[in-house]
Every structure is written in structure tokens, then in C-alpha cells.
Amino acid sequence: MNTKVDKFMARATSWQEEMEMLRAIVLDCNLEEELKWGNPCYSLNGKNIVLIHAFKDYCAYLFFKGVLMADEHQLLIQQTANVQAARQIRFTSLSEIRQKEAILKNYIRNAIEIEEAGLKVEMKKTDEFEMCEEFSTALKNDHVLEDAFYKLTPGRQRAYLLHFSSAKQSKTRETRIAGSREMILEGKGLND
């Protein structure tokens, strides 16, 4: 057990009992415990396997290579359409976790087996992500912006593409593009 995770659990204002139970289950599977991204994270030989996190309406296990896992009980959830590899199992009560304890251990063991086998998730390449029409037009009309955008790292490019295309209205997409122009020209990512 990691003292940083102890402190995290003690400070939790919601889902504390549920997360303690999830922690006990995953620790019983002999994984290393750390605090990463502000959440309890469990790894095998330095490779992330599962993370515990809480949201307003639920707490969850997040399996880093969940897309590769067997899901015989249909518990794995893709958080959003843009999440490629990770999958969640969500919980809304302590009794639900207790009822599924044996099943959860099997899911964790399956995630460990995937890591031990060295399996990799085939990720979409940046050019496979949708570019909204407004951004495509902006790049055609502004060659300085176009050059700067294609000099960004693939991850930064993806973040912008997802940010622009997630807006439902064209006006919002245009506003986002205009508001991001200077950051792109400076070589910065959306979250830099």
C-alpha cells in the first residue's frame, strides 16, 4: 500500500467506501500501487494496468488497455467516442462492488495477462481523425496557420482536431479555431 494513496482515500469527499473496496480488490491481485494523475493507479513492472477514479455520478475502474479485454459480463464502457484504448467499469454502490468482486478480479487478471503478453492497442493515426470543414477552410486560406499546425506534434494536432470538431454549431467551431490560432502559431498544444 502506498501512503500517497492512503492520503488520497482519507481526503475523498465522495465514493470513499466504494473506492476503498475497489482498492482492496485490486491490491489482492498483486499490483504495484501509485498515485498518478491524482488517482490511485496500479501497475505491473512499471506498466499501467488499472486506475481508480471518481466522478459525480459514479466511481470506476479504468483499464488502460480495456479495448483488448474479454468482456463476457458486458461491463466495459468506452468513456467517450474519442477514447481509443481505455475502458471503464462503473459503480454506483458498495453492494454492487461486493456482488461483482470475483468478476472484477477476473477482469483485473485478464488485464494483467494482456500486459504480460505484450499486447498493444492499435491507435488511430492523426490523419485518420476528422477535420471539420471550418478548420480545413481556415488552413487553405491561411498558409502560416497551416504550416504551424503541421509542425505540431501528432498529439497536439489530435487535441485541436477533437476540440474543433466536437462543437455542434459551425459558429462555435469557427470561434474555437480563431481563439486557438495564436497558440498554434506559437507551437503550443491546446492544454499548454
Q: At the first level of CATH, what is the class of the largest domain?
A: Alpha Beta
Helix and strand succession?
HHEEEEEHHHHHH
Strands of the biggest beta sheet: in what spatial order?
Answer: 1-2-3-4-5
Strand residue content = 15-25%
What distance separates the N and C termini? 33 Å
Instruction: Calculate the mean pLDDT score and round it.
Output: 92
Characterise the protein shown here.
This protein is of the alpha+beta class and 192 residues long. It folds into 2 domains: 3-116, Alpha-Beta Complex (Aspartate Aminotransferase, domain 1); 126-185, no CATH class. It is built from 8 helices and 5 strands. A 5-stranded antiparallel β-sheet has the order 1-2-3-4-5. Strand 1 and strand 2 (39-44) form a beta hairpin. Helix 5 (133-141) crosses helix 6 and helix 7 runs antiparallel to helix 8. The longest helix has 16 residues, at 101-116.
